[in-house]
Design a protein that fits this description.
The complex is a heterodimer of chains A (341) and B (105). Chain A is mostly helical and 341 residues long. Chain A is built from 10 helices and no strands. With 105 residues, chain B is mainly alpha-helical. Classes of the chains: A mainly alpha (341), B mainly alpha (105).
């Protein structure tokens, strides 16, 4: 049996295709197995592709997008983490779309919006509001439980994602300094709901501007620092959301928080699906044109946006369905092991 | 054969191999190669092992150094037995029909 260092390194490289929980459980025996396989056949492209493919399948299962043999609790947490990331993506898009649509709908002297547009914008106001409130509530609950565990321990599983969440969150807050939140937005006149909602839409537009424009061109009018921050802000948002989802998977939640997380997971499915419906209504009835806010300037960007939001919505729904349905396999616990076979 | 999930063919090969005694991953592959002429790639093997273990059809025993042997459980033996009985019925019917209609087999 060949067991040299190169074979071990190759086996460890192949092991990286699998998620960490899988590596923890099967890693050692898998590496041993691969070393023996290498002794039989040094190079085998089909074998490598098989490991890569099955590793990716295991990763898809690990984030709750397919059935796995993990415990119900692990599956639920994984599903929630994935729902959270996807809903955050939809929420940023929804806030951006709604803010532009609302500003135009609410602009004095603009074209009078049709009834379906008015209904769609109204429904989106509710959807976006609920989506953001739910996401903020999840952040608060996860943050509270993470802080509690960091004080009481064990700290190790939370250390890296906490660091990433804090760093990316700080960067996102810091990035906002480049936008002038001056008297045009604050104070929000809560006693005048029409004006208040318009200002909130303006704020939403300003905030999401930096988060949406992943490949925005560097501008000569702005500073180099601002250009760098504008470019990395969407990536920072992605890192932040994934870090929070990882924390939600790893943190020990109290019973009340556990219940809340389960309810929020179900709510994500309903909210993303509802927003998708109102979005389709908005872009199909040819009502609110948001061309002044560069959205959508032609049919193709609108269709790409629609496809991405629809994909995210379908994935959130799939995760939810799997959580509800996928309670079977681990119920098989009555197993007797014979002394010898 | 819902208990076996996807890759039921590979699962049956693994269960059949373990019916002959406890084996670790590589020994399983070699045994299957010998009795079925099929080489189970490592990705497929470990996917099947994880599924069978999760469904209680096999159990992982104490690791011997880095190698972890697996053992067929009573439930696994029942599932394998049921599968073989069902397949025997299919084979018998196929043989009889080939013989009757095509004078083959």
């Amino acid at each position: 049996m060949t067991n040299n260092l190169d074979d071990t390194r190759r086996a460890l490289r192949l092991l990286r295709w699998y998620p960490s929980a899988w590596r923890e459980r099967y890693g050692e025996e898998f590496v041993d197995h691969m070393e023996q396989e290498f002794a039989d056949r040094t190079i085998d492209v089909r074998r490598t592709l098989n490991v890569a493919y099955k590793g990716l399948v295991a990763r898809v299962g690990d984030i709750g997008l397919s059935k796995t043999e993990a415990s119900a609790d692990v599956r639920q947490r994984a599903a929630f983490g994935t729902s959270f990331v996807l809903t955050a993506f939809v929420a940023v898009f929804a806030l951006s779309f709604w803010s532009r649509a609302m500003m135009l709908w609410n602009s004095p002297g603009g074209p009078r919006a049709s009834v379906p547009d008015t209904v769609a914008v109204g429904a989106q106001t509710v959807m976006v509001g609920l989506m953001l409130l739910t996401l903020m509530a999840v952040l608060t609950v996860v943050g509270f439980n993470v802080a509690r565990q960091l004080l009481r321990g064990p700290v190790r599983p939370l250390a890296v994602p906490s660091l990433f969440a804090a760093a990316s969150g700080f960067l996102l807050l810091w990035a906002q300094q480049f936008f002038d939140f001056g008297p045009g937005y604050f104070p929000v006149p809560w006693s005048h709901p029409g004006l208040a909602i318009k200002r909130l839409a303006g704020l939403g537009w300003a905030i999401t501007l930096r988060w949406n424009d992943l490949w925005n061109l560097w501008s000569q009018e702005t500073t180099r620092t601002q250009n760098i921050v504008d470019t990395i802000a969407p990536l920072a948002l992605l890192v932040f959301v994934i870090s929070v989802a990882t924390l939600a998977r790893r943190v020990e939640l109290c019973r009340l928080s556990e219940r809340f997380i389960t309810a929020a997971g179900s709510l994500f499915g309903a909210l993303t699906a509802s927003f998708l419906i109102t979005y389709v209504v908005s872009i199909s009835v040819d009502g609110v044109e948001v061309r002044y806010f560069a959205f959508p300037q032609s049919v193709w960007p609108a269709l790409v946006d629609l496809a991405l939001v629809a994909l995210a919505t379908v994935l959130v729904a799939r995760v939810g369905v799997l959580v509800r349905r996928d309670n079977g396999p681990n119920q098989v616990t009555l197993v007797t092991v014979p002394d010898d076979t | 054969m819902a208990e076996l999930g996807r890759n039921a063919g590979a699962a049956i090969l693994v269960l059949s191999s373990l019916a002959g005694g406890d084996k670790h991953g590589y020994a399983l592959v070699k045994d299957v190669e010998e009795f079925a002429g099929v080489h189970l790639p490592p990705g497929t093997l470990y996917q099947v092992l994880a599924r069978l273990e999760g469904r209680g059809l096999i159990v992982a025993l104490e690791a011997e150094e880095r190698r972890r042997p697996y053992r067929l459980t009573a439930l696994g033996a029942t599932v394998l037995g049921d599968y073989i009985t069902a397949q025997q019925k299919v084979l018998k019917t196929g043989h009889a029909r080939l013989k009757r209609s095509w004078s083959l087999a």
